[in-house]
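dumping this here so i dont lose it
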C-alpha cells in the first residue's frame, strides 16, 4: 500500500505520510491535522495509519468541493466582510477532518445487543396493556367498595354479586399485567 502512494518530501513524516497529489491549499492545515489525528488515535485506541488515511481523504474532499465565499452574495450577522479564503478553507477543512475522525471512530464501535429474555425486569408492558390493567384494577376497587355498601345495607345478594365482579376484575388486571410481561420477554 505504501508503494502505491508516493510520499512528498515537504511536510512528510514516517507516521504521517503526505501524498504528492495533495493540493497546496491543504498544506497549511496539515500540522493541525497531525495533532488532531494523534489525539483522536490515543483517545479512541484507533490505528494511526487508518485514521490518518481518513483525515487525508477528508482534506482532499474538502479541497475538491471547497467554494470560496463570493463577496457580492456574502451575508453574515457576525462579519461585515467575507472571510479570507485561506482562513475560511482552514475552518472548512478542520470540520471535514473532525467529522471524518468521528465517523471512523464511530464505525469501530459496535453496540452490544442484549436479548430481552435475559432481562425481564427491564422490559415494560405496552401502553395499551397497562391501561387495561389500570382500568380493571380501578373497576375492582370500585366494585369492592360497592359490595361493602351493599353489606352495610344488608343486601347479601347484591354484595355477593359485586364481590364476584370485583374478583373477576382483579383477575383481569393480574392476567393483563402477567401477559404483557410475558409477551415483552418473548418479543
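and the seq i came up w/
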Amino acid at each position: 500500500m505504501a508503494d502505491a502512494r508516493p510520499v512528498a518530501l515537504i511536510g512528510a513524516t514516517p507516521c504521517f505520510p503526505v501524498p504528492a497529489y495533495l493540493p497546496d491549499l491543504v498544506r497549511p492545515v496539515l500540522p493541525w491535522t497531525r495533532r488532531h489525528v494523534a489525539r483522536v488515535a490515543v483517545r479512541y485506541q484507533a490505528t494511526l495509519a487508518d485514521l490518518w488515511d481518513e483525515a487525508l481523504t477528508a482534506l482532499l474532499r474538502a479541497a475538491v468541493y471547497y467554494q470560496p465565499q463570493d463577496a457580492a452574495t456574502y451575508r453574515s450577522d457576525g462579519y461585515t466582510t467575507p472571510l479570507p479564503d485561506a482562513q475560511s478553507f482552514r475552518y472548512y477543512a478542520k470540520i471535514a477532518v473532525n467529522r471524518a475522525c468521528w465517523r471512523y471512530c464511530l464505525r469501530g464501535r459496535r453496540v452490544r445487543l442484549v436479548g430481552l429474555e435475559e432481562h425481564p425486569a427491564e422490559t415494560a408492558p405496552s401502553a395499551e396493556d397497562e391501561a387495561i390493567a389500570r382500568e380493571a384494577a380501578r373497576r375492582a376497587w370500585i366494585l369492592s367498595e360497592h359490595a361493602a355498601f351493599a353489606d352495610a345495607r344488608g343486601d347479601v345478594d347484591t354484595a355477593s354479586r359485586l364481590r364476584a365482579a370485583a374478583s373477576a376484575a382483579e383477575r383481569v388486571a393480574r392476567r393483563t399485567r402477567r401477559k404483557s410481561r410475558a409477551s415483552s420477554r418473548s418479543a
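The chain has a mean pLDDT of 77.
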